[in-house]
Amino acid sequence: MKRLKVLIACEESQRVCIEFRKLGHEAYSADIQEPSGGHPEWHVKGDVLNILNGGEFSTMDGAEHSVDKWDLLIAHPPCTYLTVSGNRWFNVERYGDTAIRRYKDREQAAEFFMRFVNADCEHTAIENPIGYMNTHYREADEIIQPYEFGHPVRKATCLWLKNLPTLTPTKIVKPETAQSGGKSYSGPALYARDENGKILAWNDPRTARERSKTYPGIAQAMAQEWSAYLTGQADKQLSFFEEV
Question: Is the pLDDT of residue 165 over 80?
Fold first, then answer.
């Protein structure tokens, strides 16, 4: 089986990187943060744009690497200024200079997103919530939910794909249920927990970091399904569906 060279951009969690490594591929995560995934030897700390089209680079263990061209690029660009959940802050009449600054921040975020779109890589996947890029760029090729991959929560996630198949659900479970009073648990809130399993408060500084991490079931599906497709093993791959 061909050993793929894979770059996972803006990924401090290393969840997708680890799944590709399990399959024997040469995968690297890259982020301005140190990794929480426990594998600095696979992590490039710094500006991912410097290695977007290949080149020489160092991982955090000091090892030197060289890649002529990536076989697969998976990007998770920051969504703070791109998601629809922040749209209310763009009201200039109400928020004044804050809204004007946010417009500038959104344009910079969109430019960063488009760097991945225009990267010199034949196979790319870009992940973001429903938001500005659905109209500024184009509609996503697919919208997935964690409950389609074994996690009982809702968190609509868009995937913009180039020369890749859409992901097939691997384990469909019941999504979140409503609490008394009609309020529902949010997917990210259920998932943002500390090392002891306690749900973190929405304003805890660790919450945003936890909420941005790829769900393990989705990370595994990305690695298994796209690896099989790119190595010509898709015909041998069996998808597992389970409805609860």
Answer: yes
Residue 180 CB-half CA count within 13 A: 0
Write the DSSP assignment of 13-74 as a string of letters.
Answer: S-HHHHHHHHTT-EEEEEESSPPSSS-GGGEEES-GGGGTT-EEEE-TTS-EEEESS-SEEE
User: Could you give the C-alpha distances from 137 to 56, 122, 140, in angstroms and in order?
Assistant: 31, 19, 9
Alpha-carbon gap, residue 15 to 210, rounded angstroms: 12
How many percent of the chain have pLDDT more than 90?
67
- The whole-angstrom separation of Cα 243 and Cα 168 is 14
Question: Where are the domains positioned within the chain?
Answer: 140-244
Alpha helices in the chain (DSSP H): 15-22, 92-95, 97-117, 133-136, 187-191, 205-211, 216-230
Higher pLDDT, 224 or 191: 224
The residue behind tokens 């061209």 is 69
pLDDT at position 99, please? 66
- 43 DSSP β-pair partners: 29
Please, what is the Cα angle at 131 between 136 and 73, to 5 degrees? Answer: 75
pLDDT recorded at residue 82: 87
Contact present, 37 and 18 (Cβ < 8 Å): yes
